[in-house]
C-alpha cells in the first residue's frame, strides 16, 4: 500500500496531506522542495525518525541501515540469504513517484562483528525481502518491535535488545544514518528455491510434520528427496513428550468396519471458528482409518454415529459389528444402547478408570492433537482454527504410514493406491477465483486467502477468505507454500495451546521422533 511520505499514513498523497497544509500554510514552492530534501536540517516532526534513501550512493555491502520508515526488512544482495523464495511484487518508495521490484523473500543469517559492544553474535532475520534495485540494506524498526525487540537510544547510538533484555547489537550514527555492521554467514550467492520441487522440507510440512521413519515409507507414493540429517524446530517444540514404556498395536479384526473404536475429546478452549467445543474420533480397527467430527454439545454423539453407520455401510457393503468406547455418558445411554441392540452391534465398554483399554482411540486423539498443535505453531494462526487443523491432520494421517500396518489406511480402505499430489501446506497463502456473480466488472477475479484443509465430501480446498472473514470451499486455487497466510491477518496475539489436560493417560506415542535415524 502506498503511503504519504509526509505523515506516513495511507489513503492520501503528500500534496493532500492535512498535516503538511496545516504546518506550511502558504509556504512557497521553493520551501516545499527544500522540505522534501532528505538532507534538509529542518524536518517535519511527523516524518519518521529516520528514513533511508535508495537513491544515495551504494554503501559498504556489510552495512545495514536501521529504518523507521520501511515496513519490512530488505536486502539488496542475495549473498545474505540461505535460500530465496520467489515472490514478485511492487514496492513504492517514500517521497518518490517511483516503484521498485521485490524479487522474493527469505531468512538472513549474519554475524554482528563490531567490537564496540562485546563478542560477535549470530543473528537471524526472518521475512527479509530481496530487492536488487536498492542501494542499501534496510532493517525495519516496525518489524523488530512487532517481534518483541526493544529499541533504546543511548548518546550517539541505538541499542537493540531481544525479548529477554539481552543486548543484540548497536546502530551508530554516521552521516545522518543509523548504521549496523553485519557479516554474512554465507560465502557465495544463494539460488532461488523452486516451489515446484518435491523437496523434503516442504513435504515434511504438508504431511503434518511426519517423522523420518514414515517419511521414508511414503516415498512409495510421492517423489521426495533423500535427506540424511533433517532437523525441525517445530517438531522439537510442539511434539516433545515424556518417555514411557512403548505399547504394541494388535489387529483385532479381519475386515473394515468389523470393529470401531470411538472416543470424545473436550471441552477444548477456545471454541473453534465454527463454535465447536469437542471432537469425536472413530477409528476403523482393520484399516486404521480416522474419521473426525466436531460437536458443540455431547448430545450430538448419537446423531453423528447413526449417520456414520448408514453412510459407510452403504458405501462399503460392510456392516459394523462391534463398537468399543469408554464409559462416558455420551456413549453409555439408553438411546445409543437401544440403537446398537436394534442394529445388531455389540457394544464393548472399557473397564472404569482404565482408558488404556480403548488405546487405539486414545492414541488417535493424541496423534491428531499433536499434529494440529504443530500446524498451528508453524503457521502462526489463531487457536480458534484448531478444528481446521485437526481436520487437516485427519486427512494426512489417513494417507501416511501407520504403525503395525503394511499399507497406508486409505489404500486398505479403498483397495488401491491414492494420489497425493493434491496435498498442500497448512496455513500457506492461497489465491482463489471469485465467481463473476460475486464481483463487479472491474474487480479482479482473484482474492487472497489462507489454506486450511480439504473439503470433506467433494473435491476442493477449505480456504479462509481474509477479506470477508469466512471459510469457503474452492477448487480454482493457486498456492504459495513459502508464504504464511497469517502475515495478512494483521497483528495477532501469540497464543499457546495446552493439550496435555485433554488426555486421561500419559502414554508415549513414540511416533513423533522426527530425527533421521
From TrEMBL:
Pfam families documented for this protein: gag_pre-integrs (PF13976), Pol_BBD (PF22936), rve (PF00665), SH3_retrovirus (PF25597)
InterPro entries linked to this entry: GAG-pre-integrase_dom, Integrase_cat-core, PolX-like_BBD, Retrotran_Ty1/copia-like, RNaseH-like_sf, RNaseH_sf, SH3_retrovirus, Znf_CCHC
Basic residues composition-biased segments: 29-38
GO biological process assignments: DNA integration; proteolysis
All residue ranges annotated as the Integrase catalytic domain in the record: 242-417
GO MF annotations in UniProt: nucleic acid binding; peptidase activity; zinc ion binding
UniProt KW Hydrolase keyword: yes
Source taxon at top rank: Eukaryota
Keyword entries, A-Z: Hydrolase, Metal-binding, Protease, Zinc, Zinc-finger
Domain CCHC-type: 4-17
Ranges where the record places region Disordered: 28-48
PANTHER family cross-referenced by the UniProt entry: TRANSPOSASE, PUTATIVE-RELATED (PTHR42648), TRANSPOSON-ENCODED PROTEIN WITH RIBONUCLEASE H-LIKE AND RETROVIRUS ZINC FINGER-LIKE DOMAINS (PTHR42648:SF28)
This protein's name: Retrovirus-related Pol polyprotein from transposon TNT 1-94
Organism: Araneus ventricosus
Gene designation: POLX_1299
